[in-house]
Automatic annotation (TrEMBL):
Pfam families tied to this protein: HTH_17
Organism of derivation: Shewanella subflava
InterPro entries reported for this sequence: DNA-bd_dom_put_sf (IPR009061), HTH_17 (IPR041657)
Protein name in UniProt: Helix-turn-helix domain-containing protein
Highest classification ranks of the organism: Bacteria, Pseudomonadati, Pseudomonadota, Gammaproteobacteria, Alteromonadales
Highest taxon of the lineage: Bacteria
Domain Helix-turn-helix: 5-51
Length: 58
């Protein structure tokens, strides 16, 4: 997978969730994230793994 970092907005679109939900996932360690000042970013590979996992759960 890629080492690319995705913005909060990109992750919201990919997972079809609100920014509040994605921030909660990050806070609860459901998604790995990095805080750089006010910006929250997410490793693309981690987001894609979460997407695959959530699809399998239905």
């Amino acid at each position: 997978m890629s080492d690319k970092l995705l913005t909060l907005e990109e992750v919201c679109q990919i997972l079809d969730k609100s920014p509040t939900t994605i921030k909660r996932y990050a806070r609860e360690n459901l998604l790995s994230s990095y805080q750089n000042g006010d910006e929250l970013t997410f490793p693309e590979g981690e987001v894609m793994r979460y997407l695959d996992f959530s699809k399998r759960l239905g």
